[in-house]
Model the fold of this input.
Amino acid sequence: MAVEVPDAHRPDGEALSSGASMVFNVYPSCGSRPACPRLSTVQRVMSLIVQKYGGTSVGSIERIQNVACKVKGWKEQGHDVVVVVSAMSGETNRLIGLAGQLSKSPSPREMDVLVSTGEQVTIALLSMALHELGADARSYTGGQVHILTDGAHSKARIMDIDHARVCADIKAGRVVVVAGFQGVDQAGNITTLGRGGSDTTAVAMAAALNADECQIYTDVGGVYTTDPRIEPKARKLDRITFEEMLEMASLGSKVLQIRSVEFAGKYKVPLRVLSSLEEGEGTLISLEEGSVEEAKIAGIAFNRDEAKLTIRGVPDEPGVAYKILGPIGESNIEVDMIVQNIGKDQTTDFTFTVNRPDFEKALKVLKETARELGAREVEADDSIVKISLVGVGMRSHAGIAAQMFGALAREGINIQMISTSEIKISVVVDEKYLELAVRALHQAFGLDSGPSAA
Ligand code: ADP
Ligand code: ASP
Ligand code: MG
Done:
């Protein structure tokens, strides 16, 4: 059983007064900070903030200097700051590519040793940049601040954080710079938390330190109604509920790693997504229900990483689903959507989707099952995408599915599979329709803003 992150407490051992609030409309900049008219009118409250800067935000020396300026600005305003950073953009992929040149199936342990180096470069560079600005800063790898994980290389889960070292530095007035994405297991092996895992490091640090807010700085202004790179009319949301954010992340919106949202929900970490490149208040992930302007739909998520497999003409009898999906599960392949057709002539067809990287493996297993069951044929398609509407408002609005299917039909887009839950509707379509479908749905549900939002 996973050990929980220790009971949160502030470094100074005192609970933050409940009336404390953050000053979000004041964006600190470095050096001669421009006079901020709001500073004199709002109460300045000291607080502990965990900030995370993603790959693009630290993608060059200039960007690292920009981050250092922002961090120093927050510090000058009296806040305690812990910074979690990702590898410089492209670095993790480059490292994975190097391993790929050596081996088709590199050792998971050595992969984690390799890919965790990206973040180590950034923590050192950011600390140096802070020193250049006269700020006291210290960098730490995940292992050095005892981010204890289970031993599942490349997808490890955080079990505990010993924050004593971080607290001591904070007390001494230092900025603490922690490498995202990595930890160590009980045996001291380096582990990593899965792609996008620095988000989870940041939220876990914020939970362990009882931070007043966890700020995820990225290359867009916040969470949008859909990926602004696909739909330039996407609108930034001021707030989104945890439930919706979790669903958006699970359904493919990679703006936050799923586990970071789960963690934030579980430990009630105030979480905000905002841009490191532009000013703005970003998007608050809110614990309150129904905060999204009473809208039916909060946003549209999509996942390109899907593939579909169908086995036709299997005996329509009890246990057939188990016989088909059992071997898939035993091969550690996750199944997402499942459809079993109504049987005809004592046989039935069965379709399911898997993550695209598991496609070949799943196809091999399914072909074997088809032989054993005497099935008629196996069909496979790795050029599909899943597009989902997400919104807690769906609970109180009927007819969303029909509206969705109508909008897709008007564009001549064929729906291959459908799945629904209380707060989402997902469809599988041919990947060539991705952009058209997202834009059509965005417009049909009134999510469009004016000109470009990105
Ligand atoms: P980082 O390197 O900062 O962690 P990511 O690339 O992981 O950044 O996440 C930010 C990206 O998430 C954006 O550039 C955007 O393309 C994508 N994205 C997908 N869905 C959304 C959404 N609904 N709102 C905002 N960004 C989204
Ligand atoms: N560097 C890791 C990745 O590219 C972790 C992260 O950026 O959050 O996935
Ligand atoms: Mg990310």
Observations:
- The radius of gyration is 24 Å.
- Residues 54-57, 86, 196, 218-220, 223-224, 226-229, 253-255, 299 surround adenosine-5'-diphosphate (ligand 1) (CB under 6 Å).
- The longest helix spans residues 61-76.
- Residues 1-44 have pLDDT under 50 and may be disordered.
